């Protein structure tokens, strides 16, 4: 996922150091002792278009909440841009660099950053920011976390669910949302994290699909070697770029999966009529989940239509009134999809 606007979340949503050249701000009018309260207030005044007040508070928040520096520095730059104070915005981002915080690969792609890009200091910042990402990428490795049922028995075989986070995500953020009663009670679940780093704590499968397929395959081999997996009952699934990677695994016959469950994916390069027919011939079933306001809905409808035309057993479900995110009843949808995949004809 590309974060290209004001963000209220933990990852991207002052007293600034003298090195940035910004005058210190008093904290007398900053009545927030915790970040969630501050974040909620910031969202409120942003909606009320009190941009100058937001800028004032964010300058203080940079030092008040150092653990949220990435979010606050980004949001301060964003807010400063709203009032054409590009110098303050750049200095906020430079301050983050001083504290060893850098920003995601795509967060400055939006049109609102165009005035910033006319400034040499912002261009210098972007160059340094990408250099930091490249350096971090060299140290990055794929991660694997395996969960087993509470009543796990070593002499019993279990179905395997390979779960892949979305773009810009990681296992820690993804795992609480991508779960279900059946996954917890019946499956060995392998949560795999890509090594392809696009932000300090975010990873993306679609940066290099060949690397992604290799990492997912390696994770699969580790799991089946260490755990009693029923190789006839394997499901792969995930959100957004994790959904794309899941479909690539299925359509290119990378692993011996029985089915897939994907949410809000883009259309993979391997989504061809030939590959769909091949997956159908191997007995694969699936569920394609999406949301009404997902920007890729047209492509998802196109995939669903091809599945339907080829009589490929794939459910297509659109959750209304939500954008590119997890539906509240995702756990129920996952369990229903699992039942359909393993339902005997």
CATH superfamily of the largest domain, please? Alpha/Beta hydrolase fold, catalytic domain
Uncertain runs are 1-27
Number of helices: 13
* Biggest pleated sheet: 7 strands, mixed
Structural class: alpha/beta
Description:
This protein is α/β, with parallel strands linked by helices and 345 residues long. It folds into two domains: 18-138; 143-342, Alpha/Beta hydrolase fold, catalytic domain (Rossmann fold). Helices cover 44% and strands 14% of the residues. The chain is built from 13 helices and seven strands. It has helices at 35-47, 51-64, 69-82, 86-98, 114-117, 120-138, 171-174, 181-186, 209-226, 241-251, 273-281, 297-309, 330-342; strands spanning 143-147, 158-164, 188-193, 229-239, 259-263, 285-291, 314-319. Strands 1-3-2-4-5-6-7 form a seven-stranded mixed sheet, with helices on both faces. Helix 1 (35-47) runs antiparallel to helix 2. The longest helix is centred in the middle third of the chain and has 19 residues, at 120-138. It starts with 34 loop residues before the first helix and ends with a helix. Residues 1-27 have low confidence and may be disordered.
List the helices and strands and how they pair.
Layout: H1 35-47, H2 51-64, H3 69-82, H4 86-98, H5 114-117, H6 120-138, E1 143-147, E2 158-164, H7 171-174, H8 181-186, E3 188-193, H9 209-226, E4 229-239, H10 241-251, E5 259-263, H11 273-281, E6 285-291, H12 297-309, E7 314-319, H13 330-342
Parallel strand pairs: 2-3, 2-4, 4-5, 5-6, 6-7
Antiparallel strand pairs: 1-3
